[in-house]
Amino acid sequence: MNTRYAPLFEGVQLPNGVELKNKFVLAPLTHVSSNDDGTPTDAEIEYMRKRSNGVGLALTAATNVTDLGKAFPGQPSIVRDSDIEEQRKIADAMKANGAKAIMQIHHGGVQALPSQTATGESAGPSAITMQSFGEPEPHDAREITPEEIDETIKAFGEATRRAIEAGFDGVEIHGANHYIIHQFVSPYFNKRTDKWGEDRYLFAMEVVDEVVNTVKEHGNPDFIIGYRFSPEEPQTPGIDMEITETLIGKLVEKPLDYLHVSLFDIHSTTRDGKYVGIERIELLHKWIGGRMPLIGIGSIFTPDQALEAVESGNVDLLGLGRALLLDPDFVNKIEDGKEEEITNVFDPERADKHELTEPLWEQFYKGFYPVPRKDQ
């Protein structure tokens, strides 16, 4: 290995004492490759095995926790106990080469697809009409009832129990990207007048507490709990960096092992408000104050970009999404001193289709994931 890249391979200790072998994280990209019932396909298992090879921490695709929460075709499921043994195949594949396997637990909220949910509807904090993943037309989502809110919180706990029983090393609570937890925090999506609207952080905190308590009851001290969030949204009024500052202040008081920011560009700057123009990652790292690691992510395609992000001092772990989709050996090639052999451009003519599943290959081919392309 070129010694200049050595900082990328330094171990990272989480607050619960677990040691990660390096700073690389497989990001939880939507692969649309599970069976219709949410069980893994053989191609998905092999895809997760290859993409987890080399990283210290590996995240599954967003895994659905209730029948009302399914947001994608081909989305993994952890809705019921019958999913446990099937998802064990994913956990085993992810752990095969030394990565810690984390299941990302998820509910689509108003972004759930009526075509995919058991009752043909979607629901979230407040009623809204919106267009979601792959939909040709918008759908109407209803307001979720207080009883369903309680059921959803419990579902995140049950999903955690199932992840423990399936052999995962941890769970990541998906509080980002306009899905249900994000929706409750957002003044754009949450217009309720009950306690869930008066305190827009309440739902997120209740989910965290449910997950933490489930781990205490069913897990062990080594079980990892993470939380992913989006720091800003384009809607007005929506989540801004000042709201996120408050959210971070609440999250760092919880017994979490890391926070994971969802960014398209790791160096993106604050859109407006009192922090306008400052890199989001800089603010977040400052607010966390070393109390738990921060995973940064966004448009990292080369070893030098990865090194620069880590040496900036604003990230403790580095998420890789599109880079590992283009080249599953990205990390190993750096470690083996073969960084010049890394594939970081999408080639629609590649015979091996970048070793992607067929549905994910189609997503790339159609430009769903913005990446450098050989045909442009």
UniProtKB/TrEMBL annotation:
Pfam families: Oxidored_FMN
Membrane-spanning parts: none
Superkingdom of the source species: Bacteria
Name this protein carries in UniProt: NADH-dependent flavin oxidoreductase
Organism: Salinicoccus cyprini
Single annotated GO MF: FMN binding
Entry-linked PANTHER family: BINDING OXIDOREDUCTASE, PUTATIVE (AFU_ORTHOLOGUE AFUA_2G08260)-RELATED (PTHR43656:SF2)
Residues annotated as domain NADH:flavin oxidoreductase/NADH oxidase N-terminal: 8-340
InterPro entries on file: Aldolase_TIM, NADH_flavin_oxidoreductase, OxRdtase_FMN_N
Keywords for the protein's UniProt record, in alphabetical order: Flavoprotein, Oxidoreductase
